[in-house]
Design brief:
By secondary structure, this protein is an alpha/beta fold. About 35% of the residues lie in helices and about 20% in strands. It has 7 helices and 6 strands, in the order H-E-H-E-H-E-H-E-H-E-H-E-H. Belongs to the pyridoxal phosphate-binding protein YggS/PROSC family.
Length: about 180
């Protein structure tokens, strides 16, 4: 969030819609609510409530993607797949949040046979969720090392910062596959 705020401040003269991807600490909600038009990591009702309240104060709404932990790795954030539909059913109580899709970080592996099931599962979950909330059509999945499989499974958003900008060390690089990050 700190990096996004600095970039937003430096580029205030440009008409940029900011998409924030990654785990959000509750003390950063106020910053995200001010600058973001899209958030790709909603993973709790507590965070939904905090965001909704802050967005109400700002007089804004926010497109959100619900993060699902499709890899089963404890080191990753996101809802357990079994918790998704009950979570989606409760999103209507937050009028400033506009659910637009689901997001996942796949298993970090060079073995495509292990990675692709993460994307397949998210697509299946999206197909179930869209029956409850018709606007949940998006699939934010795939990064520089696995975006081809994500696209084959229906990704509508891929996160390929490393392929575009190259590897770079960041303070939060432990959130991203590889030692140097891919969160751009």
């Amino acid at each position: 969030m700190q990096e996004a705020m600095a970039k937003c401040e430096a580029l205030t003269d440009l008409p940029i819609d900011w998409s924030i991807v990654g785990h959000l600490q509750s003390n950063k909600v106020k910053y995200l609510a001010r600058i973001a038009s899209e958030f790709h990591a909603l993973d709790s009702l507590r965070l939904a409530e905090l965001l909704d309240r802050r967005l109400a104060r700002e007089g804004r709404s926010l497109d959100v993607y619900v993060q699902v932990n499709t890899s089963g790795e404890q080191s990753k954030f996101g809802l357990h797949p079994d918790a998704l539909l009950p979570f989606v059913d409760q999103l209507g109580q937050f009028p400033h949040l506009r659910p637009r899709g689901l997001m996942t970080l796949a298993l970090f592996s060079s073995d495509r046979a292990k990675v692709r099931p993460c994307f397949t599962l998210l697509r299946r979950l999206r197909d179930e969720a869209v029956r409850r909330v018709p606007d949940i059509t998006g699939l934010s999945m795939g990064m520089s090392g696995d975006f081809e499989d994500a696209i084959a499974e229906g990704a509508t958003v891929v996160r390929v910062g490393q392929a575009i900008f190259g590897k770079r060390p960041t303070p939060d690089s432990f959130y991203w596959p590889g030692a140097t990050g891919d969160g751009a």
